[in-house]
Amino acid sequence: MATTMLHKHRVSVLFSFGRSLYRRINVSQGEFGLQQKCSAYSRPINTLSASEAVAEIKNMPDESRPMPAKKPISKAMKAYLLQAKNYDEFMKKQNTEFQIGRRHLANIMSMDADTMTQEDIDQAIEFLFPSGLYEPRARPMMKSPELIFPPKKAAEFDESGRPYHSLFYTMNPNFYGLLQEAVTEYVNLNKEEDNMIRKRISFNSDMKIILSGSDWLSQEKLSNLLIEQIDDAQYEQFKNVMLRLAEHPLSNKVKDFIMKYRYSLVNEAALAEIPKPSYEKDGRAYVTFKGARRKNAYADVTVHMPGTGKFLINDCDIEYFQDIQSREQITFPLIFTALLGKVDVTATAIQGGTTGQSGAVRFGLAMALRSFVDDKMVERMRLAGLLQVDWRTRERKKPGQPGARRKPTWKAR
Amino acid sequence: MIGKSVFRALNGRQEFVKRCSKIVIRASSTVPQMSLPLSSENSNPLPFFRSKQNSPSLHGSNNSGQFYTIDPSIKKQLFLYGGIPKTYDDLCKTFKETCMMIREPALEIMDYMKSTNFNNAATRYCLYGKIGTGKSMTMAHLLHYGFENNFVIVHVPWAPYWYKFPKEYSDCPTKEGMVDLPLDAVAWLIHFKNQNSHLLADPKLSVCQDWEWSKREITKKGAPLAEIVEMGINRVKHSTNCIEALLQELKQLSDLKRCKTLVVIDGFNIFFSDKTKIKTAAFEKIPPKRVTITSPFVDITKQDWSNGAVIVSVDDLAFFRKDERNTHYPRGLLGAEGFEHLDPFIPIETKNYSEKEFHYCIEYFLDRRWIINPHAASEEGRKELAFLSNCNPFNLLKVTAPL
């Protein structure tokens, strides 16, 4: 039995090979030869590299050499890995079912399955399964399983229990990863700022991100995005960090990163379509906006462009509205766009009362005036609130109370 | 003894203090001040929106839109007991002058009156128009014209006051089923006396017949007309009878060419309505025709006399709120009965301000510092005001009040 210490590779080998065999190992520059002393074998000397030899030794099946026993996977980890696997399988199955369902639906509705969009599916389902339920989420729906089933995180650690994410032990790796990313961006922006100061490049307001028109994702939405439960303190922290980043004079460079966590307040789809004016026989341009609403009133407003400032509401002049507030509501869009004496306005208003009708006419008028005004003015009108439907309605009276907010007279005793 | 230099210094300091106080007053206002003189008397020549003619008889279409000033003494005589609408009267107090715009309706009626043959039956003019367009103001203008031309003025400032806010009512002792408004009648006689004080002294105005008030009180034929007026004022019991007598006398006197009468009644349509707030002793609500004061004034608007003119206005505001007829046309407001009574008449419409009149009015307001907001004076501001008020005179006043 010979023992050799291979210091270079810190391998100590203690073995006995076969029946009475002798080894003579030569050490020279990381090589050693395996030599069988027994004359029965007349194999040539093999020269292996150290790593290959180690591998060979490791793989040698030998009961007499006690191998380091494999760590058994704990039950918890087993269950966790099983759960992750099951989820993946489940989603796969749901997906195939959805795809089959899509094809069936396309068949039923005689649509082309390949070009069918989610919108088409929604319309088809609404048609086939009409529902009187108020809550949209309670109505029948057919959507891709990713949208319906809450997302679960993939396996967060491997078989040996080593987590994949470096921040796993914070319990909210995605969240803290996001914060770290924000901080990293901030540090980079600081470096850039320093560079700019050194090179004497001037700053201007274009380099800073404009946050108006959007707002931070709500706590719930953020939790869904990060697939982690975010509590109030964490949400506050998130907002503070992101705001700090956004306040940086060069924050426009990280606009994509910041905007991922903000949602737009503007219904851009509706505002993008400004109608083109039609033309009367005498060449006057006009635009009609129908269905302007305020409280219970509806108004249709027609604006003729080369005009003299006439105003007709239900075939009466502005004296139809007797109180000054209603008249000012109607005047506001005209003054704001500086078109007061330059257009003729004809409006019809039904239902509602004075305030409702005047508010409806104001909205209709503003929407109609968009066609006669440039984009900058349209943006200013939007900011002024002229292009937004006033959703306020009369509050419901509650039982046990005389009015919406009024409570019965409070008595001390 | 104050030396010249000290005197000069003192004066100088007074001047300085005066100027300082003006500046201080100006600085304390939040709006940049405009450098217009506060009083128009010191400025020569008159600004374009003011008329040199302060006498209505000399007003013509070239004065249209301009403001003319009413002398305070004339105002006291004519309008002490009503005639200028209260809102406008408050404005006159604010402006420290009584100025009125010369407008087309008034000029038209004055034109007709200048070319009327007074031998014919008294012409009846009916002023109508939307609320706030200047019916009462036109009447005030015409009152001034009548006053200047020595008409005997029979003026009811606002007839509905009698029926909506009667001072006191009691069952008529002589006529059955009728109700008296004794105090209101007395008030009207005082008003009449005040307006016509200069004419009542004229000996030509003497009573044409005997009037017996009671067994002991008789006004004999040939007595001055003023006696009837005095009788009515002093003896409350006979006040309505005195009014009746007075108006009948005036009709006769006008026929006899001893005087010419101008009847001016605001809110004439109330006489033909159904409701009043007046009740009989039995708490029964009665219509105006059962009130004794109604008949003399309805009578004098008939066409059975000459040498005079009758100017009447019809207004939706004359009715009670609930009974408003939402029209401003005479036929709608007078009803069938009233229209037949007044027909034939010359209808004169009062309208919202024309562009020129609006412009002049804004200039007047600026002059009087009613509008001090500089944006209101600008082109866009005026457009906005015109749009908001629809050039209605009353609305314009209200809209510019906070400016």
Model description:
By secondary structure, chain A is α+β, with helices and mostly antiparallel strands. In chain A, the strands form 4 sheets. Chain A has a 5-stranded mixed beta sheet. A 3-stranded antiparallel beta sheet of chain A has the order 3-4-5. Chain A has a two-stranded antiparallel sheet with strand order 1-2. In chain A, a hairpin with a 4-residue loop joins strand 1 and strand 2. The termini of chain A are far apart. In chain B, the strands form 4 sheets. A 5-stranded parallel beta sheet of chain B has the order 4-9-10-3-11, with helices on both faces. A two-stranded antiparallel sheet of chain B has the order 1-2. Chain B has a two-stranded antiparallel ribbon with strand order 5-6. The termini of chain B are far apart. About 4% of the residues of chain B have low confidence. The interface between A and B is medium-sized, with 14 and 10 residues.
Short overview:
The complex is a heterodimer of chains A (413) and B (403). In chain A, 38% of the residues lie in helices and 13% in strands.
Radius of gyration of chain B: 25 Å
Categorize the overall geometry of chain B. globular
What structural class is derived from the secondary structure elements of chain A?
alpha+beta
Strand content of chain B: 5-15%
Q: Are there runs of chain B of 5+ residues with pLDDT below 50, and where? A: 23-40
CATH class of the largest domain in chain A: Alpha Beta
Largest sheet of chain B: 5 strands, parallel
Shape of chain A: elongated
Q: What distance lies between the first and last C-alpha atoms of chain B, to the nearest angstrom?
A: 51 Å
| End-to-end Cα distance of chain A | 103 Å
Portion of residues within helices of chain B: 40-55%
Taking Cα atoms only, what radius of gyration of chain A do you get, to the nearest Å? 38 Å
Adjacency order of strands in the biggest sheet of chain A: 8-9-10-12-11
List the helices and strands of chain A in order: EEEEEHHHHHEHHHEHEEEEHEHH
Helix content of chain A: 25-40%
User: What is the helix tally of chain B?
Assistant: 16
What structural class do the secondary elements of chain B suggest?
alpha/beta
What topology, given as strand order, has the largest sheet of chain B?
4-9-10-3-11
Protein name (chain A): 28S ribosomal protein S9, mitochondrial
Keywords (chain A): Ribonucleoprotein, Ribosomal protein
Family (chain A): Belongs to the universal ribosomal protein uS9 family.
Pfam families (chain A): Ribosomal_S9 (PF00380)
